[in-house]
Amino acid sequence: KRSPPIYDFTTSDGIRHELxxxxxxxxxxxITNAFAKQPALYIADxxxxxxxxxxxxxxxxxxxxxxxxxxRFLAVSFxxxxxxxxxxxxxxxxxxxxxPEAFLEKIQDRFELFSGQLEHPxxxxxxxxxxxxWYTLSxxxxxxxxxxxxxxxxxxSILQTNILSPLLGIEDxxxxxxxxxxxxxxxxxxxEKRVHEDCAVAFKLHPTSVEDLLNVADAGEIxxxxxxxxxxxxxxxxII
Length: 240
Hints:
7 helices; two-stranded antiparallel ribbon; alpha+beta; DUF1015 domain-containing protein
């Protein structure tokens, strides 16, 4: 019979969290051995934090400040078929000096532009909310031909390389205060709200696939920042 969880609660976003503490040494060893047999674990979220933690640990090795716990960080493991990847969208504060009309004209150099939303979202197609209207952007073939690597072919990279950087002047989305990142779980309404309140344009992306994520990792690369929004998303601070 399964014992009751030590935590059982539902967060404000409707996600139920249940946590069991495994005290049996036999069960702990069984789980440890099962993980030891896994050929690889892939980082699905927190790529840049993980890389930073690894660099700090490496720099501390051989110094008086090094401690075994510097080699560890908290993680949770999911089977790839139990993860849902949602879109991770962008909203930008201004048009970098462009009028909406000029911005639309510039975009058409690299994308086919259509009025309205996508009925069936698909890779390399973007939805854009600008000046109270939705548009669909379809990536032109010359852009796709230059976007064949595991990272450059991601929709987040195509958007960054062809719109955010050259047209909107956002060179580093990790540090630029003009860009906001909005989880796809909030829907189109949140993008419209941001444009009506404090942004000039918003982009809705097709979700990154699990296959894309694994391909990037297998190539020894790191996913671009804010490229994946995962569900289920555990509550921060649940275990410290």
